[in-house]
């Protein structure tokens, strides 16, 4: 694939890395180079406060934006987790270590401008567990001075106001409310009691704010709610929702994201293609083999007549 033109002269290619859960290696960086992407978005859950995994991701030399998930504060955010903590929290702060390693690449409650791409990435609430109950209250109060959803949404809106670009991409660990109540909806509850919208209300409020401000929001991407459902094996979670603006809401949590087939090891990335005017043209879940070649492309969305990634190879 030839990518000699600048992003402004050709469609932009974005890779979204779903929940990692300790499945990250140098091969992922090599695979991203083979995919020739312009931007990498990572939606968190790298492991249970897996500092070394985050250290490796921080070294990724592609343009990137990262948000940390609930597993990234697994031993720090809840009383249950603190009781199970395998290290001395009085001597170590592994949550802060991850934040320090990522630096400005971590967009939780913040933003990262990419003027060369003509867009800014806005981060939702970091370490989100999802749902309409304000959980981990002590954690958010101590870390961020945030005490409720309203204050959380205001913090995200500050990042929107501070962004330099009029096109915004939102990255959350969990997606926003408003994407459906069914168990198989992009943020639907797939455990008892089945059904119900388990998205983040503060992220929804911030997205609505950006849209009302006249910002172009082509993409909101997230993970947390795995494609494989807990209550049934007869169907998978819906990966995409589209609103009237139109904004695309992509759940990228294909877990496990690395699988061994016996003779091969395959890893997945969600690939989003944007036009020069930042319209979403194509979304697919791509699996690459050990030679970093595309072996499977599951097309999630495509405008009529556009070639798949495999056809562009």
From TrEMBL:
| An MF annotation (GO) of this entry | hydrolase activity
**All residue ranges annotated as the Calcineurin-like phosphoesterase domain in the record:** 12-227
Output the SUPFAM superfamilies linked to this UniProt entry.
Answer: Metallo-dependent phosphatases
Annotated InterPro entries = Calcineurin-like_PHP (IPR004843), DevT-like (IPR027629), Metallo-depent_PP-like (IPR029052)
Classify the source by domain of life: Bacteria
Under PANTHER family, the record lists: CALCINEURIN-LIKE METALLO-PHOSPHOESTERASE SUPERFAMILY PROTEIN
The UniProt entry, under NCBIfam families, shows: TIGR04168 family protein
Name of this chain's protein:
Calcineurin-like phosphoesterase domain-containing protein
Q: Which organism is it from?
A: Halomicronema hongdechloris C2206
